[in-house]
Amino acid sequence: MSESNQPSAELKALDRLIGTWTVTGGAEGTVRYEWMPGRFFLSQHVELTQSGERVSGLELIGNLRPFGEPAGADVVSRFYDSTGNTLDYVYELTGDTLVIWAGAKGSPAHFEGTFSADDATMTGDWVYPGGGGYTSTMTRV
Q1: How far apart are the first and last CA of the chain?
Q2: What would the pLDDT profile of 5-16 be if each residue is shown by its tens digit?
Q3: Is the pTM of this model over 0.90?
């Protein structure tokens, strides 16, 4: 593979998410992250209950790379849920802090969480415009 056909360093950094996690807080359940072959895309399988509603879905995370073009700089995703919704995100990991922007980078709706020193937990807050949101903790199974 040429250098341009390698997964980005920003995407590779999300390797810390690989595995199954128990989620507690404003949403309860499990999420599982795994690499697709080639490691250009990370999949997240979601089985949660939030506000009394079941949320089941699949998220694909990676750098956009339209055919014949170089990869985009941002690590982006699209989440597909069992009710037909699609949600777009931008992932940004700096040190031990993961920010997941809802929609575009810099969005007022976002998650900001911090990995523990041993990567066994991540605790953070989902922030929504107008003051809504909730605290969430993921614990590695």
Answers
A1: 34
A2: 889 999 999 999
A3: yes
